[in-house]
Amino acid sequence: MLSINNLHAGYYGKVKVLHGISLHVPKAKVVTLIGSNGAGKTTTMRAISGMIKPTDGEITMGEGNAAKRIDAMDSHKIARLGLAHSPEGRRVFATMSVTDNLLLGAFPRLTWARPKGDIAADLERAIELFPRLKERRNQLAGTLSGGEQQMLAMARAIMLNPDLVLLDEPSMGLAPILVDEVFRIIERLKNEGVTMLLVEQFAAAALNVADYGYVLENGRVAIHGPAEQLKNDPSVKAAYLGASH
């Protein structure tokens, strides 16, 4: 579904952040990126979704003959191919209602850049999947709590009816009870066959829900393997799991 080969990326005027990482996200699987702050996790997500342009390497999305290189594409074109990004920091449209935020997630479908499908039914599904949003569907997004905004950002991504979802730090800044709820939702999406790449500060929780994991250190893949294997790896335990959720 998503393949990254020898990816190098950074930010204008700054040193490179990624130094040749490679990873693969199979269809209908959950893959997680874990690592310390500054390891390159969010930069990886931004490079995949077109928010920054890689300086070298390839990013390919799709299966078989339908696979396309996306590393030189703009973000809106990547979204049309079926990639949804729930970014770090939520970034909801504060002066718009919850419902309008969700409909913006379906914008490529409304413009026929992607198959339209039943948007009304998917809107109700999103509200049902994130029940905290149901009674707030007409409320301005900027008046929601942090946890509610995080759920709105995730629900907005799902409204694309995506082939692949990038979830960047979905539990950041949330109370423990809301962290548990976020991971229950991720588990449900996984059971529905949604393909996800997950960046998460709570490494243990991420590995519990993921099928496969990559550990980033200083912009490089230090170790990777099945999630269960990483959970039992002594070096991963010592560095990332001692105080994890």
TrEMBL record:
Source species: Candidatus Burkholderia verschuerenii
UniProt-listed SMART domains: AAA
Protein name: Branched-chain amino acid transport ATP-binding protein LivF
InterPro entries referenced in this protein's UniProt entry, alphabetically: AAA+_ATPase, ABC_transporter-like_ATP-bd, ABC_transporter-like_CS, BCAA_Transport_ATP-bd_LivF, P-loop_NTPase
PANTHER family (alphabetical): HIGH-AFFINITY BRANCHED-CHAIN AMINO ACID TRANSPORT ATP-BINDING PROTEIN LIVF
Lineage: Bacteria, Pseudomonadati, Pseudomonadota, Betaproteobacteria, Burkholderiales
Pfam families: ABC_tran
Keyword Nucleotide-binding: yes
Highest taxon in the source lineage: Bacteria
GO function term, MF aspect, one: branched-chain amino acid transmembrane transporter activity
ABC transporter domain sequence ranges: 2-243
